[in-house]
Amino acid sequence: MNGLFTPLKPVSPGLRIVLGVSCFVLFFLGWGIATYGGFVRPLFLASPGDSLIAGWALFTEFGFAEDVVVTVWRVFAGFALAAALAVPLGILMGAFKPVEAFFEGFVSFARYLPASAFIPLLILWAGVGEAQKILVIFIGSVFQLVIMVAVIVGAVRADLLEAAYTLGASNRGVVLRVLLPAASPQIFEALRLVLGWAWTYVIVAELVGASRGIGHMIIDAQRFLDTGQMIFGIVVIGVIGLITDLAFRALHARLFPWARGRA
Amino acid sequence: MSILSIRAVEKTFPGRRGAAPTRALTPTDLEVADNDFITILGPSGCGKSTLLRIVAGLETPSGGEVRLLGTPVTRPGPDRGMVFQSYTLFPWLNVRDNVCFGLRERGVPRAEQREVADRFLAQVGLRGFENHFPAQLSGGMQQRTALARALANDPKILLLDEPFGALDHQTRELMQELLLGIWEQHRKTVLFVTHDIDEAIFMASRVVVMSARPGRIKCDVPIDLPHPRSYKVKTTPRFAAYKERLTEEIRVETIKTLQMEA
Questions:
Q1: Interchain proximity B90–A178, CB inside 8 Å
Q2: Which of B86, B101, B135 sits opposite A167 (nearest CB)?
Q3: Which of A168, A256, A257 shows the shortest C-beta gap to B105?
Q4: B84 within domain boundaries
Q5: Which CATH number does the domain housing residue A122 bear?
Q6: Residue B90: its chain A contacts at CB < 8 A?
Q7: Given an 8 Å threshold on Cβ–Cβ distance, is B135 in contact with A166?
Q8: How does pLDDT run along chain B (262 residues), one tens digit per residue?
Q9: Residue B96 shares a structural domain with residue B49
Q10: Contacts with A74 (C-beta within 8 Å, 6 or more apart), sequence order
């Protein structure tokens, strides 16, 4: 059972990095061959070099840094609002079954309402300013997060609760000092996932009625058929996503050393 | 003096989706004297754990009553310390804080919590492991921590639900000696559920044998072996005589269980 392809067999950390990097290398190699090799016309797909040059121009001539900041701010504002409501509500639903019975049906229904479909309504209600963009992200994330947190809290091992009761814990003590710490690593993991989804909503929100932001820049670039700028914008989103993901993972390892290898 | 009295306690679990309800326990009486070490011996599924969980307050009886020092048991409480068969240490707390848990819930000052926790950890042989997390411990060490956690609360009675059931045979025997040693020192009243005959005789002052489902107490055998008991007692003729008798009692019940399932 020493083969590299034995199911569930872990790889060494060194090989892990090599393999992960090779995927990126292959991706850029394929992209380079397709464009520099003349297989795809530049109008449809800019080469990696041209995209990079377009990106340089974006930062130096078009103030793209401000777009990035605006978009990041929208994502985090909408996500933070959603988390501030969804995490406590999800915990209450997971812990107290009457609360769950009350909200579950409605939240499950609301979860399937596509956030982007709310954009026209939100423009009507909140105009085309920041509030509207943030609300799109909020609506897109909050219901998903509530359900995920409720499920996580509801799945905490019952025998841990029983042990706490036999040690003299009250209901309040069990919620605060057993359910919460037991569920927090996975709640954190759920936040990481939902933040990823929030990024998809922000771009959709910025495609309509925005004057700044990465999504707005991409729409602007489309008008001039500047595929280099479009691609650069998309890649920037990916890079920011990757960075936040790594930050979340590092924070998870720091906050929950006891849960190593479980999440 | 009787510290715990179980009177006509019975339990029927409602049937799910129209299935017939399951009668786990027929009306059962048991008086537990102060300082008693009672092992409840029975085949699996005989309702012995149900009885223990009713005493703990984790299950409500369908009839009858449990009284601890005259007070009816209605809910779990720190006066009845429990060790479960599954590993129930809180994984986010280190060993010391696990042992402190009950004291903390009751608002004992931090310095006193630590002092009590360290004393009981030393007693179960875990000095030096105070700052380890449960995931870093072996099964035997986890159950010893769980025992220290239950003892730290100074309960009136200790309820043990097959606490060594998941451990390997050798570790299990050492754990029995450890628990017996602690009992010989503190004389804490113990109610210990097991299906292991050797374990039941070795530690007990009384072995209560339960019948196959629906469970009832079939016989009550006082174990008259001297204290302090060492593991060597397991090879004496008197131990063998107890074992022979209890083996017969349990065998009949196990066969009944098998026939029920067939």
A1: yes
A2: B101
A3: A168
A4: no
A5: 1.10.3720.10
A6: 160, 163-164, 178, 181-182
A7: no
A8: 789 999 999 999 988 887 888 888 999 999 999 999 999 998 887 889 999 999 999 999 999 999 999 999 999 999 999 999 999 999 999 999 999 999 999 999 999 999 999 999 999 999 999 999 999 999 999 999 999 999 999 999 999 999 998 899 999 999 999 999 999 988 899 999 999 999 999 999 999 999 887 888 989 999 999 988 998 999 999 999 999 999 999 888 888 888 877 6
A9: no
A10: A130, A133, A134, A137, A202, A205, A206, A213
